[in-house]
Design goal:
heterodimer, A: 469 residues, mainly beta, Porin, two-stranded antiparallel ribbon, 6 helices, globular, B: mainly alpha, Cytochrome Bc1 Complex, Chain D, domain 2, 2 domains, two-stranded antiparallel sheet, 11 helices, 39% helix, 3% strand
């Protein structure tokens, strides 16, 4: 999982998350990912160089894909013009793309538990005991992490992606790495991908138009009630195999993925169980309005509740057992009204009571334990003044439907999030791109360590030069 | 305002203007594909988004990518188009241009723009037509008629093979259809740029379509702007179909003509003379 601006926002983010830990009454308060990370977003100028197309051919505004870019991706990064195999490329062509975003940003959070006198320790942030609430601010010039993309075709109908990603301190991990066999049996409905890859989300968090600490993540994709042992995020890349297919224009698409339960972490660190992700979407040609797409998705997962242990209780990686289920199901869409685009998503989510209460399935649940369920959704809007100028906005909400402990304040942990921004692309051609990205965002969470009636605000202001080549 | 801020403001204003305006078209045009009417203004925005990099702001094929592309992008100012349903020298119909945008051009950098809405593609045609005055004064030709195709047989493939020899197709396309005939290296297009004959052995589709009807149409209309002439005055329809059936056997895909030909060759291969100077017979 890439946490792009994690380094800069981490101290404050930890405080915000801590503020959402168990409240003074001892009941569980939901937590959310705020000011913690913005995921990498993906677009690949090496493809533009290979095919001599401007960024705007594949992207509504990069990195978001348009219908043509979606078809290109579904074809395994191929134009299907009988010149996709690398043998047809100039030998000097190297399919590598770099991306980094120098920026200035400000992060703020209210009702944070701190020591009454700085330097005189008395505050236990997890409980709020000995703490006083403060509003904290951080700001300054900063650096994002870096993407080092290499992607393309190994041969006609065999595609690949290798994406080492670094945080701002150049600590690398593999964000994506897969091989895809395209058009198996000369059939576009049969494509097989194996490795670590982005889930086939209709609304991609990897290619969206938000970068700030609070706006650069879909709350709906990552929300977990506080105290939940689950580590799953719908926006995170996963390791597994995916069977997918699409119509000739990619207006109809499906995906079936079998995934390890490791949440994208390599090394067989979780259990021997598997998750399943199912997606289907269909688009229609709405004439002057554009392409209108509606999709359904269902993630059916399991996570271990305890591990085999040794040496004074140390968990042995990969021996997770007592797997308990969770799911995320919903609808999403991508609707155009000329230059105006609306991206709605709704989700219903549930985590088993053992996961929600972080209790081993061979242990004893706390009194009143029950599955945690919640509903989430967002509405995102883009207005494309031109391929080089786009205004963005998003409202997002998460509402707890059932707390993990019965009797807990019903709205504890509810989230509302707001983001707005503008991206201007002074440089956009078929070799490289530069965007000046400015964004403000705010997340409001119900409950703090001090009181369930508190509303905690986390805010971000971000302006950066987002470039890749 | 400080100079740097003024400069950035000017760049922002320019960006907005470019986005809103793009290149200027000489006059308004409309296009009609079925029940869809395309409009210049909408097409201009789409052209800037998808096409300008290769075909250039003026539609003359001199986009920023043109130096790196082979074959070169189409020059719309000449209004000369390879893939048409109309006779050689005539303007194409809007449907012809629509089909070209939809299907792209195999073995070139022109992709299939099938994911764009039909309205988008029709709007693009309206704008493309503003680049040449020919569209103002002229009208598209009448599409040629394509008679019903006879069923392919070993005999029709053999006759097509003989035509391939007699019409000297092999001089450009090569004896095996690899685009390596003796004249291949000398060919130029209407802009005096080198042009390679189509290599039947690498493309799974033809330049102007994938069906037998598309191939028939190419013979009869020619590919304007290229050395590929129209054979409408030299080939009878039945002969054109024979040639179609033979060329289908040269492709790197399984076709029913290839299957028929393979069966025939199993027992008759020795009867064939190689294609080339003085060859091609049975």
């Amino acid at each position: 999982m890439v946490r792009r601006f994690l380094k800069a926002a981490a101290p404050l983010a930890m405080l915000v998350c801590a503020a959402m830990a168990p409240n003074p009454g001892g009941s569980t308060v939901a937590a959310t990912y705020t000011a913690a990370y913005a995921t990498y977003t993906h677009r690949i100028p090496s493809f533009a160089r290979k095919y001599n197309l401007p960024c705007s051919a594949c992207h509504t505004a990069w990195p978001e894909l348009n219908a043509f870019g979606q078809a290109f991706r579904d074809n395994g990064y191929q134009m299907m013009n009988d010149r996709d195999s690398p043998i047809w490329q100039n030998p000097s062509y190297i399919p590598v793309t770099f991306r980094v975003t120098p920026n200035w940003h400000r992060e703020g959070a209210t009702k944070q538990p701190v020591d009454p006198t700085p330097g005189v320790p008395s505050c236990v942030s997890a409980t709020g005991v000995g703490c006083v609430p403060r509003t904290l601010m951080q700001s300054g010039f900063d650096l994002s992490g870096m993407d080092l993309w290499t992607a393309g075709t190994i041969y006609k109908n065999i595609s690949f992606v290798l994406l080492p990603s670094a945080d701002a301190n150049a600590s690398f991990h593999f964000e994506a790495a897969f091989v895809r066999f395209d058009n198996l049996a000369d059939n576009r409905w049969v494509n097989l991908k194996v490795g670590k890859f982005e889930l086939d989300n209709l609304i991609s968090e990897k290619r969206f138009l938000f970068l700030s600490g609070n706006g650069g993540v879909y709350q709906s994709y990552h929300f977990l009630p506080a105290g939940d042992a689950n580590d799953f995020g719908l926006g995170d890349n996963q390791i597994g195999a995916e069977l997918s297919g699409h119509s000739q224009n990619s207006y109809t698409r499906y995906g079936v993925a079998l995934l390890s339960t490791s949440s994208g972490n390599p090394g067989l660190v979780s259990s021997n169980a598997y998750d399943t992700y199912l997606t289907f979407s269909h688009a229609i040609d709405a004439g002057k309005l554009g392409v209108e797409r509606l999709g359904v998705y269902a993630y059916l997962g399991r996570r271990p509740t305890y591990f085999q242990t040794t040496d004074s209780g140390a968990a042995i990686p990969g021996t997770g057992t007592g797997n308990k289920p969770f799911y995320r199901v919903g609808l999403s869409g991508d609707f155009f009204f000329g230059d105006f685009e609306l991206l709605p998503l709704v989700m219903h989510a549930s985590d088993d009571k053992y996961l929600a209460n972080a209790t081993p399935s061979n242990g004893t649940l706390p009194a009143g334990a029950q599955a945690a369920t919640w509903n989430a959704g967002f509405l995102e809007a883009h207005y494309y003044v031109s391929p080089q100028l786009v205004f963005t906005g998003r409202f997002e909400t998460v509402r707890m439907a059932q707390q993990a402990i019965s009797g807990t304040q019903k709205n504890l942990g509810d989230v509302d999030a707001f983001s707005g921004g503008v991206r201007w692309y002074p440089i956009m051609f078929s070799r490289a791109g530069l965007s000046w990205h400015t964004e403000i965002s705010a997340v409001r969470m119900q409950g703090s360590v001090f009181a369930g009636s508190d509303r905690v605000w986390a805010t971000s202001v971000f302006s950066g030069l987002d470039f890749d080549f | 305002m400080r100079p740097i801020i003024r400069r950035m403001a000017r760049m922002a204003a320019l960006s907005v203007l470019l986005g809103a305006g793009g290149t200027t078209a000489g006059w308004a045009q409309e296009s009609q594909v079925g029940s869809i009417t395309g409009h210049t203004d909408a097409g201009k925005k789409l052209y800037r988004r998808y096409c300008i990099g290769c075909h250039g702001p003026s539609g003359d094929g001199a986009g920023e990518n043109a130096p790196w592309i082979d074959p070169k992008p189409r020059d719309f100012t000449l209004a000369v188009f390879k893939c048409r349903s109309t006779p050689s020298g005539a303007l194409p119909t809007d449907e012809d241009l629509f089909n070209a945008i939809t299907r792209g051009f195999v073995t070139t950098y022109m992709p299939q723009w099938r994911p764009l809405t039909a309205q988008n593609r029709t709007d693009l045609i309206a704008y493309i037509k503003t680049f040449s005055p020919k569209w103002r004064s002229g009208k598209p030709g009448t599409p040629i008629a394509i008679p019903a195709e006879p069923a392919p047989t070993a005999e029709s493939i053999l006759r097509g093979r003989q035509l391939f020899q007699r019409m000297e197709c092999w001089k450009c396309h090569g004896p095996a259809g690899h685009g390596d005939g003796p004249s291949a290296a000398t060919l130029t297009d209407n802009k005096d740029l080198p042009i390679r004959p189509y290599d039947f052995s690498t493309g799974t589709r033809f330049m102007c379509g994938a069906t037998n009807q598309d191939l028939y149409r190419i013979f009869m209309t020619g590919l304007d702007g290229s050395p590929m002439p129209s054979f409408a005055d030299q080939l009878k329809p039945a002969e054109a179909w024979d040639l179609v059936h033979f060329l289908r056997t040269l492709q790197p895909i399984e076709t029913r003509e290839a299957a028929i030909w393979r069966d025939w060759l199993n027992t008759h291969a020795r009867e064939l003379k190689p294609i080339g100077p003085g060859g091609g017979g049975r």
